[in-house]
User: Fold this.
Amino acid sequence: MTQAMTGARMVIQALTDQGVDTVFGYPGGAVLPIYDELFQQSGIKHILVRHEQAAIHAAEGYARSTGRVGVAIVTSGPGATNAVTGLTDALMDSIPILVISGQVPTFLIGTDGFQEADTVGITRPCTKHNWLVKDTDALSRTLHEGFHVARSGRPGPVLIDVPKDVQFATGTYTAPEAIRSRYQPGTKGDPAVIAALAQAIETAERPVLYTGGGVINAGPEASRLLRDLVAKTGIPITSSLMGLGAYPASGERWLGMLGMHGLYEANMAMHGCDLLICVGARFDDRITGRTDAFSPQSIKAHIDIDASSINKVIPVDIPILGDCASVLTDLLEAWEARGSKTDRAAMSRWHAQIDAWRAQDCLRYKGSETVIKPQYALQRLEALTKGQDRYITTEVGQHQMWAAQFLGFEAPNRWMTSGGLGTMGYGFPASIGVQVAHPGATVINVAGEASWLMNMQELGTAAQYRLPVKQFILNNERLGMVRQWQQLLHGERYSQSWSEALPDFVKLAEAFGAKGIQCSDPDKLDEAIQEMLDHDGPVVFDCLVEKHENCFPMIPSGKAHNEMLMGEAATEQAIEAGGAVLV
Amino acid sequence: MALNIEQGSTSHSAYNLRSTFSDVEERHTLAVMVENEPGVLARVIGLFSGRGYNIESLTVAEVDHTGHTSRITIVTTGTPQVIEQIKAQLGRIVPVHEVHDLTVEGRSVERELALFKVEGQGEARVEALRLADIFRASVVDTTLESFIFEITGTSDKVDAFAELMRPLGLTEMARTGVAALSRGSAG
Ligand SMILES: Cc1cc2nc3c(=O)[nH]c(=O)nc-3n(C[C@H](O)[C@H](O)[C@H](O)COP(=O)(O)OP(=O)(O)OC[C@H]3O[C@@H](n4cnc5c(N)ncnc54)[C@H](O)[C@@H]3O)c2cc1C
Ligand SMILES: Cc1ncc(C[n+]2csc(CCOP(=O)(O)OP(=O)(O)O)c2C)c(N)n1
Assistant:
C-alpha cells in the first residue's frame, strides 16, 4: 500500500490510481519535475494547450461530458493566475476539476521569489477547496483527498499547490484505498419530507418540475429516474440552461428552457403552477426575474445537495437536502407506495392550458431569403446532426441562448456551456476537452465571433492533436448580447459593441493548418454545414448572419415571468428605468 | 393526513417554526468547529467579507491539540434568512466539522475579557477605582498616573464599563472578543 518515491512521481502515481487518462496543461519552471515524470511514462496523455485558461476550460469540458474529474497542470505565478477564470467558472457551474499548480520551493515562499504568487490565497474564493503541500509525505494523501472533494457532495474545482522541492524530495506514497476522508456530505433525503412531497404531487392541480445542473451532476441514473417520474405522473418539465438533456427535448412533457431567454410556455407554467418541484437547480436570477412576483401561487419543493442553495433566494415549503438520484428513488417509491395517484382531471386541464401557451410559438422569427438568420443556422445545424453522436459547447452571448432554444438535447452530458460566470472564451477550449474524451463523436462549439477570439489560440492545440472540433461561429460582427441590451435599455447608444478589425476566419484557420469555411447565403448553408461535418479535422466555420437580430423571448431584468417580451414589436416596453441597474 | 406546510421553513425541517424570510435583524453567536489546518481562518473570514455578512466579534483558538480541532466563535447579525445562509455557507467549507448556533440551540454562556488603560490623577483616579470595584474589574498594573484594569463579562458589561471609564481617562483598550459555550452537559 505504501511505497517510497519522489513527489513528482507521486503525482503521476496518484493520477494513475485515480483512473485519470488525460491531463491538460502547460509547463514551466515550477512544474518541471512533474513534466519530467510525464515524459517517462505513457499511461497518461498530456494535451498541451496554448494558454492556461484553456487548460481549465478543457478540463471542464472533459469533466462535464464524462462525469469524471477533469485534471489540469499549470506552473507557478502566471500559470496559476491564468487559471483563475477557469476555476471561478467551474465553481459557479459545479464542475469537478482538479488543478495541480507548481510553486516556488518552500524555502523561497514569502520572499517574492521568481514567479511566486500566493496561489492558495488567490484561489481560495474560487475553489471548493485548495491545499499548499509542504511535505512530500502528505502529497499523495492530499491528491486523493482532492479527487474525493472535487466529486463528492456538490462538485467543484480544487487546486493543489506543490512547491518544487516537494516534487524533488522522496516520501511515502499512500494508495487511495488506504485513505478515509472526513469529508462525507450526506446524500439521503429526509423520508418524512419526501413523503410530504409525494402527497403534494397527489393533490396538485398544476404541478411543474424545474430541473437543473444538479441532475447532471448526480449522474445518468438521476436523469433516468427523472424521466421515469415524468412518465408516471405526467408532470410537465422545464430546465435551467445547465440542466438541458436530463429530460429529452423530444419528450412529451418537455416545456423547453425557462428563464430570461426561456420559452413562453415554460415561464407561464412557472408563473401559474400550484406545485413547483425544483430538482438540482438554484433559483438563479436569470430564472426568477422579480423574486416577489416569482411563481406566486405555488407550494415550492426543492431537492438539493447543498443546504446553502435552499432558501437562498426563494423561500421553499418542502426542502429536501440530498442527492437527486437518491431522493428521486425515494420519492418514486413513496409516491407508488401511496397508490401512484394524481388528480387526473385537473392535470389534463393543465396540459391543455400548456398546449395553448405552446401554440403561441414563441420562438417564431422573421425568415429571410437573402441573409442567414442565426436561428435558421441553428435549425439547419440541428437538422443535419440529428441522431448523431453529438456534443455541443458554446461561448457566451446571443448565440448561446439561441443554441439553448433551437438545439434539442436527448441525453445528459451532451451540452457544455458557461452558465453561472458567463465566460466568453469558454466554448472553444471546452470543445477540445470534450473531443479528447470522445474521439469519435461530433463536437461542435456554437460561438459568437467576439467570444471565439478570446481563446482562438487553441487552434494550435486542435491542429496539433488533430482534434476534429467544429467551430460554428455565428458572426454578426457585433457583441450581440451587449448590443441588444444597449438597444433595449440604453437608448440605442451602441458604446463599444462592434467587432472591428475582424480577421479573415478562413485564412486564420488555414494559417494553423485547419480548414476554414465561410457562408453567407441561406441557400448554400446546408451544403456548407455538411462540408464542415464531413471534414475529418478541425474546422472554423464563419457563418455570416443577420447583424441586428435580437434574442427573444426575453424577460427584462426585474420583471416577472408573465411580463415577457415576445418579439421585435414588443421591444419598446423593455425600456424602463428600474431594469437598467440590474445585469 | 393533512398536509401542513408553512411558508419559510428551513433546510432542516419542513415544519419549521421561525419565518426565515422576516426582515428583522437578529444577533446570533455561532460556534464553528474546524480542522486546524493552514488557511482555515482566512476561509471563514473571506466568506463573511465576500458575501457581505457582518462580523461583530470573532475569536479562534485550538481546543483539541490531538484532534487538530479549533473553535471559532463568531457573533454576527442579520435577518433570519441571512443567518440561515451564514450557517449553511460555513457548513459547506470543507475543513468545517460542525456549526452550532448557540442563540437557538438553548441557553449559553458568553464571556469576553478586556484590558483598559485609564490615566488620571486626583478625584478621577479614585472614582475609576471605585467603579472598577463595582464591575469586579481587577487592577493588573499600576503607576502613579495610570491603571490597567482587567474585566471579564458579557460584551454588554464590557461596553458599559468602557462608557464609564471614558470620561475618567480611558486611553487604550484591548478586547479578546466573545467566547461562548452552551449550558448543561455536552451533546
Ligand atoms: C448570457 C446568459 C444568459 C442566461 N440566461 C438564462 C436563461 O434564460 N435561463 C436559464 O435557465 N439560465 C440562463 N443562464 C444561466 C444562469 O446564469 C445559471 O447559470 C443557471 O440558471 C443555473 O442553473 P441551475 O439552477 O441548474 O444551477 P447549477 O449552477 O447547475 O447548480 C446546480 C444546483 O444543483 C445542486 N446540486 C449539485 N449536485 C447535486 C446533486 N448530486 N444532487 C442534488 N443537487 C445537486 C447544486 O447545489 C446547485 O444548487 C444564462 C447565462 C448566460 C451567460
Ligand atoms: C470574459 C467576458 N467579458 C465580457 C462579457 C460580457 N458579454 C456578455 S455577451 C457579450 C458579447 C458576446 O459577443 P459574441 O461572442 O459575438 O456573441 P453574440 O452575443 O454576438 O452572439 C459580452 C461582451 C462576458 N460575458 N465575458
The interface with chain A takes residues 1, 3, 5-14, 20-21, 35, 38-39, 42-43, 46, 50, 81, 84-85, 88-89, 91-95, 97 of chain B (CB under 8 Å). The CA atoms of residues 95 and 163 of chain B lie 39 Å apart. The first strand of chain B starts at residue 26 and ends at 35. The pocket of thiamine diphosphate (ligand 2) is lined by residues A 395-399, 422-424, 448-451, 474, 476, 478-482 (CB under 6 Å).
